[in-house]
Structure formats: C-alpha cells, structure tokens
Amino acid sequence: MVRGKTVALREVGFAMEPGKITGLIGPSGSGKTTLIRAIVGAQEITGGTLRVLGLPAGSGALRRRIGYVTQTPAVYPDLTARQNLLYFASILGVARSEVGRVLKVVDMERLESQLVSTMSGGQQARVSLAVALLGEPALLVLDEPTVGLDPVLRKHLWQLFRQLADEGRSLLISSHVMDEAEQCSDLLLLRDGAVLNFSSKSALLARTGTGTVHDAFLALAEGAE
C-alpha cells in the first residue's frame, strides 16, 4: 500500500475475531495509522484486498457498522457534547435516543451541555468515543485513544473497551505504549510496514520465550534485522 511516494504497508495479512481487543502495536512510522485509514475507508488501497465485516473496505454499507476514533478528538469545539452527538446521529441516520445512551456509556451525561472547547483533553476524547459508539457498530477502530491522558482516565477507558468486547464488538486499538498492549487479547505487531506477528498474546509470549509484550517485540524486531 502506497502513501504519497512511500510504500507504507507490504504483505500485511490478518483476520480479527468478534469480541476480541486486537492491539495494533508498533513505533511511530511503522504503518499503524495508514492501516487504520485503509480499514475505515479513508486511505486508497493500491494493492491487495482488504475486507471489513465481509465487505470491501470503504463500502458505503460499512459507514454505520464501523466506529472510528482518531488521534485528535474529531468533534466540533463550538458545540456542546449533546449537540455534537445529535449532529453526527443525523448524518448516520440513527435515532436521537442513541445520544443519551452513548453519553451514559462514556460517563459524560453531567457534561452534555458543556461546550467541547471548555473541556479537558480526556473529556473531549470521551465525546469522540461517544460519537464512534453511535448506532452500536460491530467494529471499533481507535487510533491511540489514550495518548496524553492521565493514568486514571486511561484505566477507565480500558475498562470500557473490555466491556464493549464482552458485548461482542471487535476492537482494533493502536498504540506505541507496550503496557497497553498487555491488556489486549490479540496482538498485531508492525515494524517498517510489515507484520512481525499476529496472534494471541499468550501465543506471542510462547513463540518468543519472553514474559512481556515489550520483550517479545524486541525479540522479533531484532530477529528481523
């Protein structure tokens, strides 16, 4: 897959399962964001095949079935949390009643009338996540959703991610923080646009004979050099 004049991804193959949290792990420049953009239909695929929920990536029918959270909160700062959600609900064609449900899920009911521009970074991140949850999507794609957040909020968000997976959703969560990778059931490790590993966390540790994802990644990366 080419982005600009650079081959961003090559020989990337994997298949996610429902009800699993798949960690997309790799350093900056490894191809994580390009892969995410391809999955949600925002990146042209120049070679190979990518199917999402049984359909070609970018298909119009996927719009309501995928929730996408970008690195920077993609909400309007001059609107309140509720106004943002009502706007996106109208675009997606989902019921207005969905707004109250997702505000409750992300624990933002008490701040629903507050302008997003006056919220903390963590609060804005939760509004963005609420937008992604509209319509109860089968797949959630989150691009470094906890970057810059304090440890307490990160803990609460991961509790929410596990709850969503328990409900049968598939979650793909990118990160370059290895301690977050420890909380994922499956791991897709990228380096220089290529897959180092795609397996369960337990299988990865067994394959490398290591005790942590950090050490496993280093073992695979050094072995590929």
Write the layout of secondary structure elements.
Layout: E1 2-3, E2 6-7, E3 21-25, H1 32-40, E4 51-52, E5 55-56, E6 66-69, H2 81-92, H3 97-105, H4 121-133, E7 139-143, H5 151-166, E8 170-175, H6 178-181, E9 186-191, E10 194-200, H7 201-208, H8 213-224
Parallel strand pairs: 3-8, 3-9, 6-7, 7-8
Antiparallel strand pairs: 1-2, 4-5, 9-10
Characteristic terms for this protein:
single chain, alpha/beta, Rossmann fold, six-stranded mixed beta sheet
Distance between the termini: 22 Å
Separate helix tally: 8
CATH domain class of the largest domain: Alpha Beta
Number of domains: 2
Please identify which CATH superfamily of the largest domain we are dealing with.
P-loop containing nucleotide triphosphate hydrolases
Helical residues, percent: 25-40%
List the strand order in the largest sheet.
6-7-8-3-9-10
Largest sheet: 6 strands, mixed
- Percentage of residues in strands: 15-25%
Order of helices and strands: EEEHEEEHHHEHEHEEHH
Number of strands: 10
Q: Give me the Rg, rounded.
A: 18 Å
User: What is the CATH topology classification name of the largest domain?
Assistant: Rossmann fold
CATH architecture of the largest domain: 3-Layer(aba) Sandwich
Morphology: globular
Content-based structural category: alpha/beta
Task: Describe it.
The structure is a single chain. This protein has 225 residues and is an alpha/beta fold. The protein folds into two domains: 1-52 and 138-225, Rossmann fold, CATH 3.40.50; 76-137, no CATH class. 37% of the residues lie in helices and 18% in strands. The protein contains eight helices and ten strands. A hairpin with a 2-residue loop joins strand 4 and strand 5. Helix 3 (97-105) crosses helix 4 (121-133). It is globular and about 55 Å long.
